[in-house]
């Protein structure tokens, strides 16, 4: 099983391959914090000018939207399977503005495999 870092890189790659999704993120410069509550690991995905990058989330860097869930649930949410996404979405907690939640939801759904 690929770790969360690998899955985040796959999301960024899928985003680059879909031009219509990049247009959706063009003006959306945000930091998404991801917290695995069971392992206490933290990652960050950053959207800037239609591009996505990912890495470890440092505590001193603020996030615009934060996802909380078990590592397995987060992995399933980001893996790109539309059925798993629909199932797991209810168990992962999102903290942030509704607009950012809906935008991330659309990005993840549109970049599914």
Overall description:
The chain is built from 5 helices and 5 strands. By secondary structure, it is an alpha+beta fold. A 5-stranded mixed sheet has the order 3-2-1-4-5. A hairpin with a 4-residue loop joins strand 1 and strand 2. The protein is globular, with a radius of gyration of 13 Å. The model has no long low-confidence stretch (mean pLDDT 90).
Find the structural class using helix and strand composition: alpha+beta
Low-confidence stretches: none
Give the SSE order as H and E letters: HHEEEEHHEH
> How many helices?
5
Mean pLDDT: 90
Helix content class = 40-55%
| Order of strands across the main sheet | 3-2-1-4-5
Radius of gyration over C-alpha positions, nearest whole angstrom: 13 Å
> Oligomerization state of this entry?
single chain
- Major β-sheet, in short? 5 strands, mixed
Q: How would the blueprint of this fold be written?
A:
Elements: H1 4-17, H2 19-25, E1 30-36, E2 41-48, E3 51-56, E4 65-69, H3 71-78, H4 82-88, E5 93-96, H5 98-110
Parallel strand pairs: 1-4
Antiparallel strand pairs: 1-2, 2-3, 4-5
Helix pairs in contact: 1-3, 3-4
Provide the descriptors you would attach to this structure in a database record.
globular, alpha+beta, about 110 residues, 5-stranded mixed β-sheet
């Amino acid at each position: 099983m690929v770790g969360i870092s690998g899955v985040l890189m796959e999301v960024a790659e899928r985003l680059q391959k879909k031009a219509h999704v990049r247009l959706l993120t063009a003006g959306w410069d945000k930091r998404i914090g991801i917290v695995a509550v069971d392992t206490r690991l933290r990652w960050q995905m950053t959207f800037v000018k239609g591009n996505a990058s990912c890495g470890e989330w440092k505590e001193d860097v603020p996030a615009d939207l934060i996802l909380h869930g078990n590592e397995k649930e987060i992995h399933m949410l980001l893996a790109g399977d539309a059925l798993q996404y629909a199932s797991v979405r209810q168990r992962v907690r999102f903290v942030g503005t509704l607009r950012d939640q809906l935008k991330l939801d659309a990005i993840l759904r549109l970049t599914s495999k």
